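Z., the sequence and structure:
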Amino acid sequence: MSQAVLDGIRDLLPTLRERADEAERLRVVPEASIKEIAETGFFKLLQPARYGGMEASPLDFYEAVRLIASACGSTGWVSSVVGVHPWQVALFDDEAQQAVWGADPNTRLSSSYAPTGKAVITEGGFLLSGKWSFSSGCDHCSWVLLGGLVFNEENQVVDFRTFMVPREKYQIVDVWNVVGLRGTGSNDIVVEETFIPEAFTLSMGETGQCRGPGQAVNTSDLYKLPFHSIFTTTICTPIIGMAHGAYAEHVDMQRSRVRAAYLGEKASLDPFAAVRIARASSDIDAAWALTMNNIREEMSLVARGEQIPLGLRLKVRRDQVLGTQRAIDAIDALFEASGGRALAEGTYLQRAWRDAHAGRVHAANDPERALQMFGAHEFGHKVDPGMY
């Protein structure tokens, strides 16, 4: 089943690439692209079988994201972050799952997890309010997942939760005027004080321990993987996909490029050009191989009924942030070696260069914090597993 999705995505790649300029102009992925990606079954890869999903391997999901991003960075980014949300919804109480997918299993959700909203405990749930930024793909979704700090009656923070909010209870504010990932439509979400039942919330402390009430009905090993492994890889993968796309275009351009400044020398005969693509391709391959191997190792442990050690979870984060950096370094090297033609509007290279650097500023791609945690754990210091 997953193979059919991957085949469908591969068939779409030329069309997605052709629409990349349109996505930038609209500042949102074209509706036609979302519709065609949905028709492949992509958005159901990580959705529970109970609600028409495939419960597929996350490795297949990431491979599909990598392919999409190799054609259009913005489309890959939106596909990744929207496509991963069914995995988290599966951890919610079944009442919430029913509300999202009961009437329409094709329902999609966007998100903004930074806890910039405030939730106050009240009878049966919480009163949520606030403004959240960077909700990629929100125009294509009818629910949103929002991070919020929970306050008690004494105005003390007692929890950090994800709140599931239907479209009629939030406003989308169009603020997305940026130079990279311009087609993602990552606009602001505003919620005036509204009641959210407890069943429509999920404690991040609980997900940090690989637990959630939805596991009572969704028993697949898929939903026992660490939240932060799944979600940070979701942010890294499109950037590695952009590097694959940039590499393909660079090699194609250099095969036919003649360097006027070097007396008509063919760029493909330049030995230094050959060395550059060797280094770039190795960085891209290393980024992908390490990232996928770590997820594969976590899956193997879960399949054997074993607990995923903290050291492996931190290794996932180590290789995820370094995978992002390797991919960006490769894109930078390829862009710098591509000549003036790479500057033209419409080329994949200049867009990948902008999109990858835009993706780098996401909190999940902050290397120092993740690397410090890994190193501290290696030295035997205590590390809070709740956030990894």
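Residues 210 and 226 are 5 Å apart (CA to CA). The chain is about 50% helix and 15% strand.

Let me know what you think.
H.
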